[in-house]
Design a protein that fits this description.
Blueprint: E1 2-7, E2 11-18, E3 21-29, H1 36-49, E4 59-64, H2 67-81, E5 86-87, H3 108-121, E6 125-130, E7 133-139, E8 145-152, H4 154-164, H5 184-215, E9 224-227, H6 231-235, E10 243-244, H7 248-260
Parallel strand pairs: 1-4, 4-5, 6-9, 9-10
Antiparallel strand pairs: 1-2, 2-3, 6-7, 7-8
Helix pairs in contact: 1-2, 3-7
Length: 261
């Protein structure tokens, strides 16, 4: 048994692995004020539902983009298991070359996405992760991580819009029936969901064009993978994605841990 913990800015995902595959996962709201004791209790409560003892875990790894919670999760897991958890970062992903000036600045989730995309889909590959931010990560033909794009996420954009526009209120985040919204709700869904899809289409096209120029070819074909909490929703609105892979980040955490053993 292995536990992968992906600490994002808005949500934290805990994945339970057996034989290298995700068997169960849980999501909880990321709270920067959580203490190690609180995190320990939350984790035990999830596992208790499945009658799983944390002490039986072969390994535990954390990928966090919230530095204060990285420390809290580390303490919680030491208390729970009696051993040091594996922390995912650029230095830990030794099997992948990070072709960037400052690798230490790259978020752990982006590293995990790149490593797993390369392992599962080959190289080159492009990952679009729909979370608090929309991250696009690129693995080039040599298998090196090249970086990518960071934009405000769909829910972050929606929250800003609802806060600043007095006549607009929260709506279900789903694909509208048509691009031209005939109600305010449909118009918002068009702008938010179809807008996110169009953004992904445009940025992916530019990235593919750059990769093609670098290889001195007319066109480059590579898999484009959607992941993140809203990857499935946006994936319904575009054909730019070759796969929607909701467990990509968790599997990347597991793979980096495996490669470092």
């Amino acid at each position: 048994m292995f536990l992968a913990i992906d600490v994002g800015n808005s949500q934290t995902t805990v994945g339970l692995f057996e034989s290298g595959a995700v068997q169960r996962h849980w999501r909880l709201k990321t709270d920067r004020l959580d203490t190690a004791d609180e995190l320990h209790a939350q984790l035990r409560s999830f596992l208790a539902l499945e009658d799983i003892a944390l002490e039986n875990a072969e390994g535990v790894a954390v990928a966090s983009v919230v530095p204060q919670l990285t420390a809290m999760w580390r303490r919680a897991l030491i208390d729970a298991t009696g051993s040091e958890p594996f922390v995912v970062n650029a230095a830990a992903a030794s099997a992948m070359r990070i072709d960037m000036p400052y690798p230490e600045q790259v978020g752990a989730d982006r590293i995990a996405n790149a490593v797993e995309a390369h392992a599962t889909y080959g190289a080159p590959a492009i990952v679009v992760d729909f979370g608090t931010a929309t991250n696009i990560d690129v693995v080039d033909a040599s298998g090196s991580y090249r970086g990518g794009c960071i934009a405000p996420g769909l829910m972050l954009s929606a929250a800003a819009l609802f806060e600043k526009a007095a006549k607009l209120s929260s709506i279900p985040i789903e694909v509208p029936p048509a691009p031209i919204g005939d109600t305010t709700e449909h118009a918002l869904q068009s702008g938010l969901v179809l807008g996110a899809a169009a953004q992904a289409e445009g940025l992916v096209a530019r990235i593919k064009a750059q990769l093609a120029r670098e290889q001195d070819v007319e066109k480059i074909d590579c898999p484009v993978i959607a992941t993140g909490g809203l990857g499935g929703v946006v994936g319904q609105a575009t054909d730019v994605f070759d796969a929607v892979d909701v467990d990509l980040t968790l599997r990347g955490i597991w793979r980096i841990w495996q490669q470092a053993r």
